[in-house]
């Protein structure tokens, strides 16, 4: 048990230290000019100019930094956006594919039925690769759209990602395919399907790695592609209930958009931590990076976060203090033992009850008894005499009284109870109820203990001072619960750890 406690303490301390390590874009603020835009579904940054385009459930909004975004197009729900290098904005929506040049919008037909409803866009070597609800389409510069057939997977295209100047990856029909153009970039030369590792669910998104290779986002994990085209599984741990949607890989780390907020990890293997408010607590549908900033779009509109390598000194100091406090605090096993002692639920008490039940057979039954007895008798005699002509009568009376007492002591043994005592059934029933109560106490104390640690971690990571104050208040509330369960031992232990000359606290049940 002690080794388990030590491992748990080291793990918690590691989490605290992790929280104190440099993050990259913890604070997010609404992007200037896009305050009116809500429920964003797609996002695109123009690499050749400072333009930004945002799609929603009904429209496309476009603006340059510092300008107020203007509604440029009404096309229903926007699925994806892509700026043509140095040119127009292409829009994939539920109503089809559109080319927006200035204020003029031109629709493009890419196929009949489901194959004409665009879902994803990617510029590759000057050509446009379009994913639809039923496969892929390709358009060379100045040419018409043609369907990519052959060995291309069928089904809805969920993601497109550039792997090189003329190589792309696509997710369609739950499979990953590699698409290569010829040297001119005008003809699809090869399409090859690639096999993902089993498990973790179907692929959802793709992201090229700055160091080479690519990542495939899956429902409960990642898959990494090396230079030879082999995919390997990378397990990750996400917050409970978070559904991953999109993935972005930068030199600083990985950004993961989920329906429960934006997550960040410094390495492919994680762990993922929640970004700062408000991006960390709102559904994110799309994300993109440019220069030293990260832009995300989701339920709360368009948010911007600066990519930087250092946290403010005050937050660094707060996290260092939190890590030091965690190292001094009692471990969860010590708190549980203190609660059991205070509530008289220690294991030896039940063991003593069982032993005394069996030993009671050797104790005699003592009986004390007594009795009282007595008798009484009365006698009366009468005689007559005649003397000198006179009758005389003589009467004699006689009385006797007697009493006696009886007392005794009796000892009896039931030696058969040494083999099986009738009260052992009651002792067993009491033991089961005692174990249930003990488990409930241990579970409650553990929940309070770790919930308090989580509140402390969140408070140290929270950039909003008001939200951080609420989290600190929650940690204090949970500490009060631990104090109540241990009869004041928790607060006394913290005081003793901060003042070494104080004696260790004692518990009085």
Describe the structure.
This protein is an alpha+beta fold and 509 residues long. Helices cover 25% and strands 38% of the residues. The strands form eight sheets. The protein has a four-stranded antiparallel beta sheet, with no helix packed on it. A four-stranded antiparallel beta sheet has the order 2-3-4-5, with no helix packed on it. Helix 1 runs antiparallel to helix 2 and helix 2 packs antiparallel against helix 5. The longest helix is centred in the last third of the chain and has 38 residues, at 424-461. The radius of gyration is 43 Å and the shape is rod-shaped. It starts with a helix and ends in an 11-residue tail after the last helix.
Q: What shape does the CA trace take?
A: rod-shaped
Terminal CA distance: 24 Å
**What fraction strand?**
35-45%
Number of helices: 7
Could you give a short account of the major beta sheet? 4 strands, antiparallel
Total number of β-strand segments?
30
Considering DSSP H and I runs of 4 or more, what fraction of the residues is helical? Answer: 25-40%
> For the CA atoms, what is the radius of gyration?
43 Å
Helix-strand blueprint:
Blueprint: H1 2-20, E1 29-30, E2 42-45, E3 52-55, E4 59-63, E5 70-74, E6 78-83, E7 89-93, E8 96-101, E9 104-108, E10 118-124, E11 127-132, E12 135-139, E13 146-148, E14 157-162, E15 167-172, E16 175-181, E17 188-194, E18 203-208, E19 214-218, E20 221-225, E21 231-235, E22 244-249, E23 254-258, E24 261-265, E25 273-274, E26 284-290, E27 293-298, E28 301-306, H2 313-328, H3 332-342, H4 347-359, E29 365-387, E30 390-412, H5 424-461, H6 465-485, H7 489-498
Helix pairs in contact: 1-2, 1-5, 2-5, 3-5, 4-5, 5-6
